[in-house]
Structure formats: C-alpha cells, structure tokens
Amino acid sequence: MTTLFATDMITFYQPAFWGLDTTDELNAFASSKPDAFWDKVMAALSEAGVSGIELTFGPGSIDNVLKAFGSAKAFGSTLEARGLTVVSAFMADAPAWSENADLPAIIADAERRAAFLAEAGGEILVTGLPMRRTVGVRPPLFIDVAFMSHAAGIAHAIGEAVAAEGIKLAVHTESNSALWYERDIDLFMAFTDPRYVGLCPDSCHITLGGGDPVRTARRYNQRIILAHWKDAVGEITENLVIDDTIFTQQQRFMVDFGAGVVDWNGWSEAMLATPGCETVLLELDAAPDPVAALRAGRAVVERARS
Questions:
Q1: pLDDT digit string (tens) for 246-279?
Q2: pTM of the model
Q3: Residues 110, 162 contacting (CB under 8 angstroms)
Q4: Tens digit of each residue's pLDDT (9 = 90 or more) over 172-221
Q5: Helical packing angle, 34-48 and 72-81, nearest 10°
Q6: Which residues form the Xylose isomerase-like TIM barrel domain (predicted)?
C-alpha cells in the first residue's frame, strides 16, 4: 500500500519560519505576496517528502487560495505540477452550530467549500463541534442527548449536501470541544448515519481528554475517513478557560512526534483497518522548522509501519 503523507496548513503558521515576528505580519505578507507565500510552502512540502495538504483558516483558507490563484482549478493544477495535492479542508471559520443556528447559511457555506474542493481535487471536508464552556460559567453547556441530537441533525444536513459534489464530511475530535471525550465520540457516532457523517479522530486531542486514541480508532475504524496524527504529553487535568485563547493554551500539551505518550504502533495498526488508511495527515501547530518536524513525523510513522 502506498502512503500519502499530508499536513495541515497550520504547520506553516509560525512567523519565525518566515523571518517575521507576529501572526499579523505573516497574514499581511501572505496577502501582499501570495506567490512567495505559496512557493515557500510548496517547496517545504516537497523537501519534507509530504505531498498532501489540508486547508484551514488564515493564509491557507479557501477564500485566500481563491484570492491568490483565482480559481480552485488553477490551485489544483499548480499543486499537481509540483507533485502535490489537496487532501481536505477544515471548516474552521464556518457559521456556528449554535442552538439557533442558521441551517440554510451553514449548508450554503458547506456547499461552496465542497464545490471548491471537488474542483481542486480534494475529497474531504473536516469540521468540529462547538466548544464547551468553562466549568463554573453560567449558564452551563451540557453535552447531552439533546445537544448531540441537534448537532447530528446539522451534520446530516451538511453530509447530504456535500455528497452531491462527491465530497465526504468528517468530524474532528478537538480538545475542549463537544467532541473531546471518548463518551462524546460514542454519543455522536450513535446519533449520526455513517453514510453521511465520517470521523476524523486526532490522536493528540483524544489523549488530552484522558481517552485512548487507539481504542477509539479500533472501535470506529469503519467511520474513519481521515485522521490527524499528533503527539501529546498526556491528559489535561485542569479546567482551562475556554475563550479566544483556548487553542493557544492547548499547545503546551502538544509535543513533537515520538516525544509524547501516543502509542504509534497501536495507532498505526488501527489506522490500517480504516477507509482512510492511505493518508497520514501529520498535524503540527506552527512548527518553527516545518521541514524538520514533518520529516521527524514521517520517520515515526515509517518505523511504526515497518
């Protein structure tokens, strides 16, 4: 079996990699010099031996790709000429799945992204469930049957809509979100139809929630159409403040491949039994040296699969 190594665009969001000091400077650079931005990203991918990308927010969003290349087809053709491909797109900036969610707007947004992906050569839209609320904040947000039933309804509507473009929906297990703990995953999987909703487990985030990513991967192997491979220091035992800084707060619990507690042999074995087994998406949040980090990730995976 041929393995397609991929990574999330977040891997390249460390300003120091660009000789810059702040994220704002990086965004400005990518906006003013899109050719230089994408040329460096693609060169780094090729140097690291990674050929797939997952689009997300920021410079690597669908909207910014369209500004830089003019069309999904042009973007896909440019990638293909470099031996690269789009694997997926993470809907990080999609309309919220709130209690009073605007379902038509959510569907229209997903359809637009699906049309882009289909034209660019990708196959999977990835999304997450809403974030939890900080423990002690009132009113509390309970992740219960009613919550999951509502979320499942939205997921079904998106999954059915994007299927018209040949795109699959995968829901990601994010720390401090409504799909973090193993029981969250169990509940959501039970409420969703596997024909319309897939799973994108993240080995790091499941670990940070006190779960076992290998056990989860084995239990839902036929629901997994993509997975994020990332290492973690262990369970987060404190109640973090869930606000605009939560994603930055979580980064201190994430480590380089092989430096954490994830059972890569078990995880790799479990992944081989999934529909998404041919793609290994190495996720690294704003790596100072993306090429070295991606090479290290590849080495971990190759050892586990040898």
A1: 999 999 999 999 999 999 999 999 999 999 999 9
A2: 0.96
A3: yes
A4: 999 999 999 999 999 999 999 999 999 999 999 999 999 999 999 999 99
A5: 40
A6: 43-298
